[in-house]
Amino acid sequence: MESEQHRSAASVRAVEIGVAVVIFLFGVLVVFDSYRLGARWGDDGPQAGYFPFYIGLLLCLSGGVILWRAFRNTGLAAESFVERAQLKLILTVLIPTVVYVGFIAYLGFYVASILFIAYFMKRIGKYSLLMAALVSVGISVAFFLTFEIWFSVPLPKGPLEAALGLG
Q1: Any idea where the domains of the chain sit in the sequence?
Q2: Predicted model pTM
Protein backbone atom coordinates (compact mmCIF):
# COMPACT_ATOMS: atom_id res chain seq x y z
CA MET A 1 0.00 0.00 0.00
CA GLU A 2 1.20 3.50 -0.82
CA SER A 3 2.20 5.78 2.01
CA GLU A 4 0.23 9.01 2.44
CA GLN A 5 3.12 11.12 1.11
CA HIS A 6 3.52 9.03 -2.05
CA ARG A 7 -0.16 9.11 -2.97
CA SER A 8 -1.06 11.09 -6.03
CA ALA A 9 -2.38 14.59 -5.41
CA ALA A 10 -3.48 14.99 -9.03
CA SER A 11 -3.57 12.82 -12.12
CA VAL A 12 -2.15 13.91 -15.46
CA ARG A 13 -5.69 13.82 -16.84
CA ALA A 14 -7.04 16.16 -14.15
CA VAL A 15 -4.22 18.65 -14.71
CA GLU A 16 -4.64 18.55 -18.49
CA ILE A 17 -8.37 19.17 -18.12
CA GLY A 18 -7.70 22.09 -15.77
CA VAL A 19 -5.10 23.63 -18.09
CA ALA A 20 -7.40 23.14 -21.10
CA VAL A 21 -10.25 24.92 -19.33
CA VAL A 22 -7.99 27.83 -18.31
CA ILE A 23 -6.63 28.20 -21.87
CA PHE A 24 -10.15 28.02 -23.31
CA LEU A 25 -11.53 30.60 -20.86
CA PHE A 26 -8.60 32.92 -21.52
CA GLY A 27 -9.33 32.57 -25.24
CA VAL A 28 -12.99 33.43 -24.61
CA LEU A 29 -11.90 36.53 -22.69
CA VAL A 30 -9.60 37.61 -25.54
CA VAL A 31 -12.34 37.01 -28.15
CA PHE A 32 -14.93 38.92 -26.12
CA ASP A 33 -12.68 41.89 -25.45
CA SER A 34 -11.40 41.98 -29.03
CA TYR A 35 -14.95 41.98 -30.34
CA ARG A 36 -15.75 44.83 -27.95
CA LEU A 37 -12.82 46.83 -29.35
CA GLY A 38 -13.72 46.04 -32.94
CA ALA A 39 -12.62 42.84 -34.63
CA ARG A 40 -13.56 43.62 -38.20
CA TRP A 41 -11.69 44.89 -41.20
CA GLY A 42 -12.56 48.55 -41.50
CA ASP A 43 -12.26 50.96 -44.41
CA ASP A 44 -8.81 51.99 -43.24
CA GLY A 45 -7.59 48.50 -42.34
CA PRO A 46 -7.99 46.19 -39.36
CA GLN A 47 -9.70 47.47 -36.24
CA ALA A 48 -7.87 47.30 -32.88
CA GLY A 49 -9.26 43.89 -31.96
CA TYR A 50 -8.88 42.20 -35.36
CA PHE A 51 -5.69 40.24 -34.77
CA PRO A 52 -6.28 39.54 -31.05
CA PHE A 53 -9.73 38.18 -31.97
CA TYR A 54 -8.18 35.46 -34.12
CA ILE A 55 -5.51 34.74 -31.52
CA GLY A 56 -8.34 34.27 -29.01
CA LEU A 57 -10.07 31.87 -31.40
CA LEU A 58 -6.82 29.89 -31.71
CA LEU A 59 -6.58 29.76 -27.91
CA CYS A 60 -10.17 28.48 -27.70
CA LEU A 61 -9.43 25.86 -30.36
CA SER A 62 -6.22 24.80 -28.58
CA GLY A 63 -8.00 24.52 -25.23
CA GLY A 64 -10.76 22.49 -26.86
CA VAL A 65 -8.29 20.08 -28.51
CA ILE A 66 -6.41 19.58 -25.23
CA LEU A 67 -9.70 18.95 -23.43
CA TRP A 68 -10.89 16.50 -26.10
CA ARG A 69 -7.57 14.58 -25.97
CA ALA A 70 -7.64 14.47 -22.15
CA PHE A 71 -11.14 13.00 -22.15
CA ARG A 72 -10.29 10.49 -24.90
CA ASN A 73 -7.10 9.21 -23.25
CA THR A 74 -8.42 7.43 -20.16
CA GLY A 75 -4.93 6.13 -19.36
CA LEU A 76 -3.95 9.59 -18.17
CA ALA A 77 -6.29 9.21 -15.18
CA ALA A 78 -4.02 6.53 -13.72
CA GLU A 79 -0.84 8.52 -14.31
CA SER A 80 0.26 10.68 -11.38
CA PHE A 81 1.13 14.29 -12.16
CA VAL A 82 2.29 15.18 -8.67
CA GLU A 83 2.55 13.32 -5.37
CA ARG A 84 1.30 14.83 -2.13
CA ALA A 85 4.81 15.33 -0.74
CA GLN A 86 5.86 17.11 -3.93
CA LEU A 87 2.75 19.29 -3.89
CA LYS A 88 3.47 20.24 -0.27
CA LEU A 89 6.96 21.44 -1.29
CA ILE A 90 5.53 23.44 -4.18
CA LEU A 91 2.93 25.10 -1.94
CA THR A 92 5.63 25.86 0.65
CA VAL A 93 7.11 28.24 -1.91
CA LEU A 94 4.02 29.25 -3.90
CA ILE A 95 1.80 30.47 -1.06
CA PRO A 96 4.39 32.82 0.53
CA THR A 97 5.26 34.12 -2.95
CA VAL A 98 1.62 34.99 -3.67
CA VAL A 99 1.38 36.70 -0.27
CA TYR A 100 4.61 38.61 -1.04
CA VAL A 101 3.24 39.89 -4.34
CA GLY A 102 0.07 41.01 -2.55
CA PHE A 103 2.08 42.75 0.17
CA ILE A 104 4.04 44.81 -2.38
CA ALA A 105 0.92 46.87 -3.11
CA TYR A 106 0.39 47.74 0.58
CA LEU A 107 3.87 47.71 2.13
CA GLY A 108 6.01 48.63 -0.87
CA PHE A 109 8.64 46.57 -2.62
CA TYR A 110 11.41 46.99 -0.07
CA VAL A 111 9.50 46.18 3.14
CA ALA A 112 7.71 43.26 1.46
CA SER A 113 11.07 41.95 0.22
CA ILE A 114 12.60 42.18 3.70
CA LEU A 115 9.72 40.12 5.12
CA PHE A 116 9.80 37.63 2.24
CA ILE A 117 13.55 36.98 2.39
CA ALA A 118 13.59 36.82 6.19
CA TYR A 119 10.66 34.38 6.19
CA PHE A 120 12.39 31.97 3.82
CA MET A 121 15.72 32.24 5.62
CA LYS A 122 14.11 31.54 9.00
CA ARG A 123 11.52 28.96 7.91
CA ILE A 124 13.32 26.94 5.26
CA GLY A 125 16.98 27.85 5.80
CA LYS A 126 16.71 27.61 9.61
CA TYR A 127 18.91 30.69 10.03
CA SER A 128 18.83 32.75 13.20
CA LEU A 129 16.49 35.73 13.34
CA LEU A 130 19.48 38.09 13.48
CA MET A 131 21.06 36.58 10.36
CA ALA A 132 17.73 36.63 8.49
CA ALA A 133 17.19 40.27 9.45
CA LEU A 134 20.69 41.35 8.44
CA VAL A 135 20.63 39.58 5.08
CA SER A 136 17.08 40.62 4.15
CA VAL A 137 17.71 44.28 5.04
CA GLY A 138 21.08 44.18 3.25
CA ILE A 139 19.53 42.78 0.09
CA SER A 140 16.75 45.37 0.16
CA VAL A 141 19.31 48.17 0.58
CA ALA A 142 21.20 46.73 -2.40
CA PHE A 143 17.92 46.70 -4.40
CA PHE A 144 17.29 50.32 -3.42
CA LEU A 145 20.77 51.45 -4.42
CA THR A 146 20.66 49.52 -7.69
CA PHE A 147 17.20 50.48 -8.87
CA GLU A 148 16.42 53.83 -7.27
CA ILE A 149 19.86 55.43 -7.25
CA TRP A 150 21.92 53.93 -10.07
CA PHE A 151 19.24 53.07 -12.64
CA SER A 152 16.65 55.70 -11.55
CA VAL A 153 13.87 53.11 -11.72
CA PRO A 154 11.32 53.74 -8.98
CA LEU A 155 9.81 50.64 -7.40
CA PRO A 156 6.51 50.60 -5.45
CA LYS A 157 6.82 52.36 -2.10
CA GLY A 158 4.81 51.80 1.04
CA PRO A 159 4.04 53.79 4.17
CA LEU A 160 7.48 53.20 5.72
CA GLU A 161 9.33 54.68 2.77
CA ALA A 162 6.89 57.62 2.76
CA ALA A 163 7.56 58.20 6.48
CA LEU A 164 11.31 58.18 5.80
CA GLY A 165 10.87 60.68 2.96
CA LEU A 166 11.84 58.13 0.30
CA GLY A 167 8.37 57.79 -1.31
Answers
A1: 4-78, 86-163
A2: 0.67
